[in-house]
Structures are given as C-alpha cells and as structure tokens.
Amino acid sequence: MSRRVLILLGPPGAGKGTQASRLCAELGLPHVSTGDLFRAHRAQGTDLGRRAQEFMDSGRLVPDDLVLDMLFERVAQPDCVRGFLLDGFPRTLPQAEALEKRLPTGTAVRVLDLRVADAALLERLTGRRTCRQCGNIHHVQNSPPKIAGRCDRCGGELYTRSDDEAATVAKRLAVYREQTQPLQGWYARKGLLSEVDGERAPDEVFRSLRTAAAGMEAA
Q1: Boundaries of domain holding 12
Q2: pLDDT on residue 1
Q3: I want to staple 153 with a disulfide (CB 3.0 to 4.6 A). Which of 97, 112, 136, 207 is the partner?
Q4: Nearest to 184 by CA among 175, 193, 173
Q5: What is the pLDDT of residue 123?
Q6: Residue 216 confidence (pLDDT)
Q7: How many domains does the chain have?
Q8: Whose CA is closest to 192, among 39, 1, 3, 8?
C-alpha cells in the first residue's frame, strides 16, 4: 500500500480536533498539526523555530516554505512511513499547491471536509464556557453546568474566552470562508474531496469520516 495522507478541512468549531484524534487512533496514523510543530520548534530553540519566531516578532506571516520545511522534517520520521493526518494545513491555495509539489509521487491523498453552517458554528463556539481553574469546558446548551457559572469538575468560575466571543468568532469564520474554503473546489476538481455533514452527532460524523478514509485505503 502506498503512503497515504489524510487532510482534515473544516471551519473553527467543526470538531476537527476531536475527530482527528479518533481517526488517528482508529487508523494508526500520526496526527500532524502545524500549530503543534510551531510550538515544539520554538520550545526547542531549533533553527527553524528561530527563523519562524523572527517573522512572528515582526508581525509578519511565517512563509509557506518555512512551514513546509517544518512539516516535511516531521513526516520524515519513522512513525509517518505509512502516512499521516494533517490538521491545520493547508489553509490557502498556495499552500495546497506547494504541498502537492513536495509530496512524493504515488502518495495517496484524501481530503475530508467537515461541513457545518455558520449559524451552527456560532452557537457551538459562543456557547462555550471555560473554567478559569482547571480549563474544563461546558456548553450552555449541550453540557450546561449543574450550578450556573461554576465548573462541575472543580467548582471554579466559568467564563467566555475572547476567542469564543461573537465578534471574534464571526471574524474567524470570515477568514476561513475567504482563505480556506476555496480548497474545497480545488480538491474536488482533483477527485480527492469527501464531504461529511459535521452537524450530526459526533459518533455519526466519525463513522462517515472513517468510511471515507477506508474507501481511500481500499483504492
């Protein structure tokens, strides 16, 4: 079987992190997150990390080539020999094109696209409440605390993170629709895209993602 690469697309609040972890456990593939790579390189003080930090310190975006250098250094490790799941990359068409050029010939790629309407995403994200003490997350509708404003786990105060405020969520979704959503059409034209309804129960979403990934494996 050729090396396979799963790319998980979806807007903020679509549940990518949870589903990525489940898929990787099910398929025996490493979960490669570019955000985690940035943090690891910065913490370790690597040359790549220092170069990335210089761009961030000056308020500039880290160049795609540098992100790809970090990514391909990671996927050259033995645990990625059968393949890996990408979460958080690519985010733009230029990144997708650059990734395609650097993947070895014969790599099997499948893009799993979690579709969730903006109204549902706003409800999911703006309804989250985070504990100041232990970080546990409640949701005002899906998992409300037993005592209003207090964490079920430790009793700490629950608050709305700035990332979960309505204005910030709306901006994050607008950026996704503008920069990342065009990847849907680009990958669909290549016959690599599988669309999954992300508004269903998490177990149902996972089964659909697993089926799409299994179809890729059979091919």
Answers
A1: 4-29+82-117+179-218
A2: 53
A3: 136
A4: 193
A5: 92
A6: 58
A7: 1
A8: 8
The Cα angle at residue 187 between residues 182 and 191, in degrees rounded to 5: 145
Per-position b or e across 84-102, b if 16+ CB within 10 A of its CB:
bbbbbbbbeeebbebbeee
- The residues annotated with a catalytic role in the active site are 16, 91, 128, 161, 172
Residue 63 lies in a domain: no
Q: Would you say residue 200 lies in a domain?
A: yes
In 34-82, which ranges are continuous DSSP H helix?
A: 34-44, 47-57, 64-75
The pTM score is 0.85
Give the rounded percent of residues in the chain with a pLDDT score beyond 90.
Answer: 79
Mean pLDDT of 205-209: 96
Backbone angles phi, psi at 172, to 5 degrees: -60, -40
Number of residues that make up the chain: 219
Q: Both tokens of residue 117?
A: 């309407």
pLDDT of residue 23: 95
